[in-house]
Design brief:
Layout lengths: L11 E4 L2 E4 L3 H21 L3 H25 L13 H15 L9 E2 L4 H26 L4 H25 L4 E2 L11
Antiparallel strand pairs: 1-2, 3-4
Helix pairs in contact: 1-2, 1-4, 2-5, 3-5, 4-5
Length: 188
């Protein structure tokens, strides 16, 4: 099989149900989700399998689900096939957030992204996820989307914040508070 097709040489790409310009807002949305998936893979490479086996399994599932998000975003018309991202997937992210948050120390102030390599990369995942969510919001202004994708990305960025803190906590590194932050978080 050849990797190159030459069909995109004129600046268009195939989506499910047609062709669009490569800088189309739809391509920007699923392309940013793809970028996020790459950073998730990088973060996984920084996590020790023995110490973070549970998180690695969850992140692998998230990688599959990010492909589902991209697939739903590449769909021009829902009539072509059912959506893949569901409300149950969003609900499960909330369960994971609660589970991992219970392992982290309370915070009162904003924290600086950083600490371990894994934590730093998971913070990158959080910010790229937020950008993907913004691209999906822009897409939804003009074209129909699977609303569960937007909800999924919103919740996923919260999970990345939580597991970035978890990576520091389990590694004994701890978070660094933003020195000029007011108290913005409530106690658990």
């Amino acid at each position: 099989m050849r990797i190159y097709t030459r069909t995109g040489d004129a600046g268009q790409t195939g989506v499910i149900g047609g062709r669009v310009d490569k800088d189309d807002v739809r391509v920007e949305a699923y392309g940013t989700v793809d970028e996020l998936n790459c950073f998730v893979g990088q973060a996984m490479g920084f996590l020790d399998a023995e110490q973070f086996g549970d998180l690695l399994a969850d992140l692998l599932e998230i990688q599959h689900e990010l492909f589902d998000c991209g697939s739903d975003l590449a769909l021009l018309k829902q009539e072509l096939r059912p959506y893949k991202v569901t409300a149950e997937m969003v609900d499960r992210l909330e369960v994971w957030i609660d589970k991992y948050d219970a392992e982290t120390p309370d915070i009162e102030k904003f924290i600086l992204p950083g600490g371990t390599q894994a934590s730093s990369t998971l913070h990158i995942c959080r910010t790229v996820c937020r950008r993907a969510e913004r691209r999906v919001v822009t897409l939804a202004r003009t074209q129909p989307i699977n609303e569960q994708v937007r909800r999924y990305l919103n919740r996923l960025s919260d999970l990345f914040f939580t597991v970035a803190r978890l990576a520091n906590s389990r590694s004994g590194s701890g978070d660094v508070e933003y020195a000029r932050s007011a108290k913005v978080f409530r106690r658990k």
